[in-house]
Amino acid sequence: MSQASVFNGSSADVKKEKLFLLALSGIQFTHILDFMIMMPLGPQFIRLLNINTHQFGLLLSSYTFAAAISGLLATFYIDRFERRKLLLVFYALFAIATLACGLAPSYETLFIARALAGCFGGIMGSMVQTIVADAIPFERRGKALGTVMAAFSVSTVAGVPLSLFLANHLPVLNWRAPFLFIAIVSTAILLLGYRYIPTISGHLGNVNPDGRFKQVYRVFIEPKNITAYIFVALIMISGFSVIPYIALYLTANVGIADSYISLIYLCGGLATLFSSRFIGHWADRYGKVRVFRILAIAGLIPILTTTNMAPIPLWLVLLNSTLFFVLISGRMIPAMAMVSQVVDSKIRGTFMSLIGSTQMLASGIASVVAGMVISKTPTGQILHYEIVGYGAAICGLLTCWIVGYIHSRDMLATPQHHLEILE
Question: What's domain 11-200+212-421's superfamily in CATH?
Answer without folding.
Answer: MFS general substrate transporter like domains (1.20.1250.20)
